[in-house]
Design goal:
- The chain is α/β, with parallel strands linked by helices and about 230 residues long.
- The chain contains eight helices and six strands.
- A six-stranded mixed beta sheet has the order 3-2-4-1-5-6.
- The radius of gyration is 17 Å and the shape is globular.
Length: about 230
Amino acid sequence: MPQLVLIRHGQSQWNLENRFTGWWDVDVTEKGAAEARAAGVLMREKGLEFDQCFTSLQTRAVKTLNMALEEMDRLWLPVEKDYRLNERHYGGLTGLNKQETRDKHGDEQVHIWRRSFDTPPPPMDADSPFQMSDDPRYAGIDVPLAESLKNTIERVLPYWEERIAPDLKAGKRVLISAHGNSLRALVKHLSGISDDDITGLEIPTGQPIVYDLDDALNARERYYLSER
């Protein structure tokens, strides 16, 4: 029976500062590092084993994976990194404090930008200090100006079908370290959650989510490892 584990990166510095982060590369905090290591300890204690790991190109997800694997004594496991597992791009909201943005634009507008399924935030300006078009990790990639959750799903699911699903169907045990919205895209797909309901789903940092799948990769069960 294929088994998949998802983990959202540990708390980042901009999580702590309540800022929109998206594709901007920020590190984990001390608390985030502790969350990542605790996740590794928990997975080791529960006897989980993996054959293949996947993560984004963003430091907070990569470090979370590495710290968890270190606690499991599994740093030698193969890891594939791909931008399609990156967080949703928050466009012109990147770097802004969420409460200050609410004060300026109103709760309703910010809620639409944050939680609607298919309405992206304002696009990032070409001269934004958070522009990533020249970042070498994205060479040859058309960096978006902003993304809705729908846009995020449209890049995550092809990667799932192309790279991750075949490994699971081949019997590999898979661990994915990614972000709130890229993981929300996978959870929506695997659990058959509606467009309306997925916007209300919160994925906590550093908490491994276990999927027991059937051979067709339909979800038989989904649970937080800490609850078992």
